[in-house]
């Protein structure tokens, strides 16, 4: 889960770093609660005494009572053992009462820290959201409190019970300690050796879980963008990778849990077996039957349950506590989101979900758009757009070595079906668009116009054939390379909260003020920009009309250095005059323009018109297509009537 750890390098260590970070605040926390700790110690001493008395009572009931023929004495010693067992209840009650004095202040302090951290991050990255904060405030704080309570209970219980039981064994016969202690210590050592790798595995599992949750939240927030840009499969693939990563992390964790179970077996059962095997040896050293029975009682009744609980609690709760505390108390991860802020290299931390170069940026900024890649000479090399005259297509053509200009867009026998058995939407389509050309795509609703733009944009892979943009195959092309080749402006234009300048320069972050001014003039945005307070004025997406949003998205595309612009009904909310101004400006821009037209005027303005008609396609100048395609004649008839705004 490499991505999961991005931006959280302090979580990537093996646990010792976390321990170092947690230790000082933990010491301070405990130092302030000495009185509670002292009261806990008193109750724990009572627990040690109870453990001591149980085995001691059983041993003496046998040796001094039943085996010596004194049944009354035997029963009296058994009564002592019974009272010791019954005393366990009030002792545990006392322990729990004191425990609250540690766990509740811990919970309050963690909540305070989690809130402080979220506030600090919100201030560091205005507009950004720290989604992990919710998890820290609820789930993780509860995990920390419960784990801490479990740890205090079991650690303390183990130490005092083991002390009581070992003291009891020693008092019965020192040889008993010699037999019991080695397997007990061996199991404990094996268990302690698993703690560090187990903590690291636990940390990776938590990080994988958070990364998955974060991905789901980002994908949900960006659903419209994902659908509009056709990057759902890519996002799903990334989600599947995260699920696989989380599963792998859980498997590693399970592997270490198995090692710990083995340690539990050694520490928990080997002492009993060792004691059984050593009975002849012990008898030879004068260990009485009562002492042996008392030793078994110590093992079965006190020591082994304490070891079992200790290992379970320290292994699971201890590792969890360390990881969770480090997340809340340790250094804050670097902010991952710059919503409403133009991304600057290096790109934001965290795995990108939809690395597109579409001009609608609002929620795609949330899902990690890549840094805008340079094209046509790279960043900073583009001249001020408005200063450029409209070059003839041939003048803008770039000639490869063999002398023929490389086509801006080339489709060779492209077929697209949305399902294995589905009728193809496009069937063996050939198309060649020259550099600098302005092509209008028309056709009835549902004929495949958006499909064509997505194919050319490289966000949809063809079922067959080949698609090249500026000579490069776009199928399987790296995202940054696609971003350098084309900009796709869909019908739903998204803008993001930020300044007007940030919105306009999103695809060309180094644009000079003069470029922005020229763009505003060329696209007819002057009154809108003035109303918003100039280039430094704020854009609030909800307060803009669909037409205003489209104008901003078009201006953003205009400024982009990409050589190919794809407009998929991107001017549908503009009135005819505004549409004409925007389209003419975009056509004057150096580069190729492919427009899905929804008005006759838009088709007439283009150098050529592509009419999609079922699986047939006709392409040529407006007059030629008018003569050759009855569908185009029908469409122009509808447009002229004004009865259908849309083809
Ligand atoms: N993701 C998809 N899965 C299955 N079928 C789809 C998908 N996207 C589009 N289609 C189908 O493919 C055909 C072409 O759709 P497309 O959106 O490309 O047409 P269009 O010409 O752009 O239509 P409109 O002008 O209404 O936007 C339609 O029948 C549509 O239902």
Automatic annotation (TrEMBL):
Topological relation to the membrane, as annotated: Multi-pass membrane protein
UniProt KW keywords: ATP-binding, Membrane, Nucleotide-binding, Transmembrane, Transmembrane helix
Residue ranges with Pro residues bias: 343-354
One Gene Ontology MF term: ATP binding
Residue ranges occupied by any ABC transmembrane type-1 domain in the UniProt entry: 134-305
UniProt-annotated stretches for the region Disordered: 333-360, 372-405
UniProt cross-references to PANTHER family, sorted A to Z: ATP-BINDING CASSETTE SUB-FAMILY B, ATP-BINDING CASSETTE SUB-FAMILY B MEMBER 6
Transmembrane parts of this sequence: 36-56, 76-96, 148-170, 176-195, 261-282
Subcellular location as annotated: Cell membrane
Domain of life according to the entry: Bacteria
InterPro entries tied to this protein: AAA+_ATPase, ABC1_TM_dom, ABC1_TM_sf, ABC_transporter-like_ATP-bd, P-loop_NTPase, Type_1_exporter
Gene3D superfamilies in UniProt: ABC transporter type 1, transmembrane domain, P-loop containing nucleotide triphosphate hydrolases
PROSITE patterns cross-referenced by the UniProt entry: ABC_TM1F, ABC_TRANSPORTER_2
SUPFAM superfamilies: ABC transporter transmembrane region, P-loop containing nucleoside triphosphate hydrolases
Name by which UniProt lists this protein: ABC transporter ATP-binding protein/permease
Stretches assigned to the ABC transporter domain: 409-638
Pfam family, one: ABC_tran
Organism the protein comes from: Streptomyces phaeoluteigriseus
């Amino acid at each position: 889960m490499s991505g999961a750890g991005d931006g959280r390098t302090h979580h990537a260590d093996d646990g010792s770093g976390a321990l170092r970070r947690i230790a000082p605040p933990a010491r301070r926390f405990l130092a302030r609660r000495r009185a509670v700790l002292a009261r806990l110690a008193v109750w724990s001493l009572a627990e040690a005494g109870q453990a001591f008395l149980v085995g001691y009572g059983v041993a003496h009931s046998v040796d001094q009572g039943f085996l010596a023929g004194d049944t009354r004495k035997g029963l009296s010693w058994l009564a002592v053992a019974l009272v010791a067992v019954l005393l366990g209840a009030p002792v545990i009650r006392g322990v729990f009462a004191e425990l609250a004095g540690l766990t509740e202040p811990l919970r309050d302090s963690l909540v305070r820290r989690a809130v402080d951290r979220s506030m600090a991050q919100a201030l560091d990255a205005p507009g950004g959201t720290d989604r992990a904060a919710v998890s820290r405030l609820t789930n993780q704080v509860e995990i920390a409190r419960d784990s801490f309570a479990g740890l205090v209970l079991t650690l303390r219980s183990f130490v005092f019970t083991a002390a009581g039981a070992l003291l009891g064994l020693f008092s019965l016969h020192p040889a008993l300690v010699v037999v019991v202690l080695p397997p007990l210590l061996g199991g404990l050592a094996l268990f302690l050796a698993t703690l560090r790798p187990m903590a690291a595995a636990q940390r990776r599992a938590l990080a994988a879980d958070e990364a998955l949750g974060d991905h789901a939240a980002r994908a949900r927030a960006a659903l419209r963008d994902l659908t509009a840009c056709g990057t759902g499969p890519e996002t799903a693939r990334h989600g599947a990778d995260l699920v696989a990563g989380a599963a792998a992390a859980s498997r590693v964790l399970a592997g270490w849990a198995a090692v710990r179970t083995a340690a539990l077996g050694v520490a928990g059962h080997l002492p009993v077996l060792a004691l059984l095997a050593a009975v002849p040896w012990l008898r030879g050293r004068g260990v009485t039957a009562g002492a042996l029975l008392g030793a078994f009682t110590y093992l079965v009744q006190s020591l082994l349950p304490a070891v079992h609980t200790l290992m379970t609690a320290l292994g699971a709760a201890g590792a969890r506590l360390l990881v969770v505390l480090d997340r809340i108390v340790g250094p804050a991860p670097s902010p991952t989101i710059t919503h409403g802020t133009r991304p600057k290299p290096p790109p934001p931390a965290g795995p990108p979900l939809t690395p597109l170069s579409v001009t609608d940026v609002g929620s795609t900024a949330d899902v990690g758009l890549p840094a805008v890649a340079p094209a046509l000479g790279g960043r900073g090399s583009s001249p001020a757009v408005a200063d450029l005259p409209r070059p003839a297509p041939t003048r803008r053509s770039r000639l490869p070595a063999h002398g023929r200009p490389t086509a801006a867009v080339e489709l060779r026998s492209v077929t697209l079906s949305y399902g294995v058995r589905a009728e193809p939407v496009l069937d063996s389509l050939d198309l060649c668009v020259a550099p600098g050309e302005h092509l209008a795509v028309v056709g009835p609703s549902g004929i495949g116009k958006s499909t064509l733009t997505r194919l050319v944009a490289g966000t949809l892979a063809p079922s067959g054939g080949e698609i090249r943009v500026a000579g490069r195959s776009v199928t399987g092309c790296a995202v940054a390379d696609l971003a350098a080749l084309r900009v796709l402006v869909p019908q739903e234009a998204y803008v993001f909260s930020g300044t007007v300048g940030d919105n306009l320069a999103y695809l060309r972050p180094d644009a000079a003020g003069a470029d922005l001014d020229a763009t505003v003039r060329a696209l007819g945005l002057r009154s809108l920009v003035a109303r918003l307070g100039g280039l430094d004025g704020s854009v609030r997406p909800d307060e803009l009309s669909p037409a205003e949003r489209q104008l901003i998205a078009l201006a953003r595309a205009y400024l982009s250095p990409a050589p190919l612009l794809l407009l998929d009904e991107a001017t549908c909310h503009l009135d005819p005059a505004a549409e004409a101004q925007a389209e003419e400006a975009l056509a004057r821009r150096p580069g190729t323009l492919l427009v899905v037209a929804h008005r006759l005027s838009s088709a007439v303005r283009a150098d050529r018109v592509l009419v999609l008609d079922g699986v047939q396609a006709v392409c040529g100048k407006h007059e030629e297509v008018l003569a050759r395609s009855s569908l185009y004649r029908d469409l122009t008839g509808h447009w002229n009537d004004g009865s259908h705004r849309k083809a």
